[in-house]
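Hi V.,

Quick status before I head out on leave. The structure for the redesign project is tokenized and pasted below; the design run finished overnight.
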């Protein structure tokens, strides 16, 4: 990491591991990274917002999903750092990475109700995948995050 970015703070964020009735995980492909990388819904926290409220808001903003049930808040926070080529670019250069609180949720609706063509779309497409696949589709700088989440979710749903 370049010296000028080392003192930047981490952005506080949330993430949602969304399971369907078959325990498949929701992932989507970002518009701003159209390669074959997928991610679970996640985003920043607004001023005065608590983690869970932010998670519900982010999920609805990104996917139109609001028919959900909270299964469990994942213990602790998980941090990732941006790779050098994204430092100074992502989040207008204000942060060097993100410290995230994750939530495991169950989708109670129908797939036809999922709509990623929102007011400010972030995704090109979405799909349900096996939990064991989530660390095979993610961008490399978030790989450790997804491996840890996979381990945590397996403990909860097994």
């Amino acid at each position: 990491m370049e010296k000028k970015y080392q003192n930047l703070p981490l952005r506080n964020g949330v993430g949602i591991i969304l399971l369907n009735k078959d325990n498949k995980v929701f992932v989507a492909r970002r518009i701003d990274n159209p390669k074959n990388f997928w991610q679970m819904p996640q985003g920043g926290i607004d001023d005065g917002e608590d983690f869970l409220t932010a998670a519900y808001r982010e999920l609805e903003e990104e996917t139109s999903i609001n028919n959900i049930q909270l299964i469990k808040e994942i213990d602790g926070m998980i941090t990732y750092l941006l790779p050098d080529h994204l430092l100074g670019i992502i989040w207008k250069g204000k942060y060097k990475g993100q410290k995230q609180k994750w939530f495991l949720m169950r989708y109670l609706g129908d797939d036809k109700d999922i709509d990623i063509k929102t007011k400010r779309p972030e995704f090109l497409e979405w799909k349900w995948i096996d939990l064991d696949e989530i660390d095979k589709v993610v961008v490399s700088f978030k790989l450790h995050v997804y491996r840890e989440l996979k381990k945590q979710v397996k403990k909860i749903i097994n």
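Above is the designed sequence. The longest strand covers residues 97-107.

G. will cover questions while I'm gone.

Best,
W.
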